[in-house]
Amino acid sequence: MKCQEIAALKHAYTDRELDLVRTTEIERHLSGCPACSQAYENIRALGSALKSSDLYFKAPAQLKQHIQNLVAADVRRRTPAEVPSENPPPHVGGYHAWAFLRNLLKFGLPIAGTAVVAFLLAATLTRPSTEERLAQEVTASHLRSLMANHLTDVASSDQHTVKPWFAGKVDFAPPVKDLSAQGFPLVGGRLDYLQDRPVAALVYQRNQHKINLFIWPATRSANTTKKPAVHRGCNLIHWDESEMAFWAVSDLNPAELREFAELIKRPGK
Fold first, then answer.
1. Burial class (CB in 10 A: 0-12, 13-18, 19+), 102
2. pTM over 0.85
3. How are beta strands 244-250 and 154-155 bridged, if at all?
């Protein structure tokens, strides 16, 4: 089984939706393919993160009241349909069938529609954004690299050793800087998997704190810097520059992590 097939089936495999033969083939492939195995672990970590109670919010009382006000206002705008005076149809539960049907179409369905729209609006407002889900995935990958003793695939403080190591493993050339003079020595690099694609992970250190710097081609070309975030006790800084997306994540304090990010952004080697 090839990596492309694994990419198409990895979610079904994670959810245990495949037959025994296909499951066995995937497990055999994962045991010998670090990239696909990393992708699978990322999916599992993201699934666990999405089940966290931190992502579930109880609708505020104001929202409930707002929905009730919308329904009440809709009721006040509508009046029961007049029952035809000539040749009335048979009664249904005390109401003429014709009046009952017209009231249902003109009165009941619009109210139900209002409630459904309000429910969908509430669900959209409380659903994590794409940026938040990616931040969770990046954080999970960072924490897993520290816990699983798989911090680097190539352990070296020499940028001229780390950068060429990625050749042929990713379809881009990640910028690798030597920041040892500034107090952020390079530890090495590894291949990781985020957003359904292989990415470069550069590892730096500040005293006893490890910094994972994830890099991959950006979907937008403009140079932008996002507001720093905090997930599961880790600080994150995200920016796009020179058609590359950068995510720096560490338990390092925010001020020093910002210093590190500024050094990475600075032109030059």
1. middle
2. no
3. unpaired
Phi, psi of 37 (to 5 degrees): -65, -40
pLDDT per residue as tens digits for the range 157-171: 999 999 999 999 999
CB 90 within 8 A of CB 69: no
Q: Are residues 236 and 138 in the same domain?
A: yes
Domain final residue pick, 104, 126, 148: 126
What's the alpha-carbon Rg for the chain, to the nearest Å?
28
Task: Answer yes or no: are the C-beta atoms of 216 and 195 closer than 8 Å.
Answer: yes
Element (H, E) at 162: helix 159-165
Q: Do residue 256 and residue 243 come from a single domain? A: yes
Position 69 confidence tier, pLDDT thresholds 50, 70, 90:
confident
Query: Is the CB of residue 185 less than 8 Å from the CB of residue 168?
Result: no
* Structural domain containing residue 94: 61-126
**Count: domains in the chain:** 3
Tell me: do 70 and 183 sit in the same domain.
no
**Together in a domain, 161 and 75:** no
- DSSP state, residue 232: T
Whether residues 135 and 252 share a domain: the answer is yes
Residue 76: partners with Cβ closer than 8 Å, 6 or more residues away: none
Count CB-CB contacts under 10 A for residue 38: 23
**CB neighbours (10 Å) of residue 190?**
23
Amino acid at 46: L
